[in-house]
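[SOLVED] Need 3D model of a two-part complex

Original post:
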Amino acid sequence: MRVEHVTDTLVIRTKRLTRYFGHRAVVRDLDFSVRRGSVVGLLGLNGAGKTTTIRMLLGFLDPTRGESEVLGIDSRHLTPETRCRIGHTTEGHFLYPWMRVRDCERFGRQTHASWDGNLFDQAVRRFGIDTEAKVSWLSRGQRAGVSLASTLATEPELLILDDPALGLDPVSRRALNETIVEFSESGNCTVLLSSHLLDDVERVADRVALMVDGRMLVDSTLDDFLQRVGAWIVHCEQNPLSQHSIPGLVHCRSLGNRWHITIADPSTEAMDTLETLAERLEPADVNFEEAVLAYLSRSRVGHSFYTGTES
Amino acid sequence: MQIRVIPGSSAAIYRQIADQVRRAVVSGELSIGDAMPSVRVLAKELVVNPNTVAKAYAELIRDGVLESQPGRGAFVAKRRNVFTRAERTRRLDEALDAAVSAGLVLDFTSDEILARMQAKLEELK
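Solution:
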């Protein structure tokens, strides 16, 4: 009999996960969890700590302090059995260049306990790859396809994709998105996807986790994220931040003599402040890309709506 | 009907899906009793997260546009009003405000706007 408990629904869980390189904290006090069945877009600029987080989750790197669990097991003590349930692709999609694509399939089959050749073929076909082709002849998009195919063929429950879309052509991007949607449709499989392609994340993810300078500033469903971020165009001469502090401020950008201000969870207090400092105030539309960019453009303003582990 | 989603627009993807279904029902492109594609099928077709499609369907079911028949999927429902008259009026005003201001920006007179509105309504009869 299987007892349903919290580690069963949370496939990833970190507690104050922190990593220093020298004196520099690359990941700071990460309290983050991923529920089974979700597709989480992990966003952040280069150097924000995404890859370091993924490496700690997979036990490739020890945390300086804090801890993390994957599939209910401490990342530092993942057994080969547990690792078999995790599919992971690294940035750049490393493959042996002398192999033909069908050799990659054979190599995978012989090195994995569980292997479904049909899943491999299906993924390879979707990326339009000839199985007789040598890996060294393949485009970057096709290499991504082979790497993804090799990962999917092991039938993982958890897929961790580290910037899989980097440098892909539009057709391969489409194939990648289709593959992720298909993988997630059963509702039991989970995806952690780090990416810079905000349009693709908006399509395939249902949650967004956003890291800035090693901290996670947003961890929420995509829809909540969009609803909770508001933006206004403020008409005023001076920089509105020079005299006032705005609660929940995410980012303030100059548009000549106007200012574009993005606020998380705008409170009445924040709105009052805007009313006082503005000669004129117009609400602005916020789309997913703008909301993310507002977070990524700011540096250490010190406000966030970190939502913890509840959904 | 063909649904299209555009990421990066100010309307969330689930909203785009829900709005297009609503429009198709009102315009008669979808009729009462028509079967909707399953969440999985539509998610795959649009290449979007299945939860996004499920959220759009849930909203359409809540608003009475679709009805779900257990085990068979979602169907276009018989039109019934789930909103109060005040709420319907509010929604109508909201839509009219947008249309009227667009018309005025394009330099149409009140009479011209009214005439176009009349023509549109005739088309639907």
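Edit: The mean pLDDT of chain B is 89.
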